[in-house]
Amino acid sequence: MTQQRGVPGAPSEGPSADAVEVRRSTRRRRTVSAYREGDRTVVLIPARMSEAEERRWVRVMLDKLAAQESRRTPDDSELGRRATRLSEQYLAGRARPATVRWVTNQNSRWGSCTPAEGSIRLSHRLQGMPEYVVDYVLLHELAHLLVPGHGPDFWRLLETYPRTERARGYLEGVVAAERLPQLPAARPGESG
């Protein structure tokens, strides 16, 4: 038998902040495990654990998952080198950002740029997408360091990147797919 419930007082920052679901199982004796399921974290614990033990183990497992995810996340220094390479290759080295970094708080944009500060931020949602797509978004933000708006001068800068249209089409497809209704996941043993 498994009991499910959310955890009040779960951390309010990072990917685990969306939702934490604790599943208690009478079959589980000693082990605790956790995994991400969409925008929530599922923590599996033995049914006999006290609420204090549950809270402690939820914190431990959230920290463990965060550490695993940070090891898999490309770092900002690599992103900065990539920006320099793209600027040299496609913008004659004229776009020189002060900072380039991955961020987890951009869910409605792929990237953003603050020309006055020279800062560029790319959404973590780009991680795992084809390199030409990430390069396009990074080049798009680099171009904003030279031309703030989306007028003809801006788009002329991006014409030099041969995969602009392909990358834009890919991102449009991702957005369209996200808008499709979600089908419920099949349960183990069920076929669809």
UniProtKB/TrEMBL annotation:
Stretches assigned to the YgjP-like metallopeptidase domain: 100-171
**What Pfam families does the annotation carry?**
YgjP-like
Region (Disordered): which ranges?
1-31
Under CDD domains, the record lists: M48_yhfN_like
Secretion signal: which residues?
none
PANTHER family on file = UNCHARACTERIZED PROTEIN YGJP, UTP PYROPHOSPHATASE
Q: Which protein, by its recorded name, is this?
A: M48 family metallopeptidase
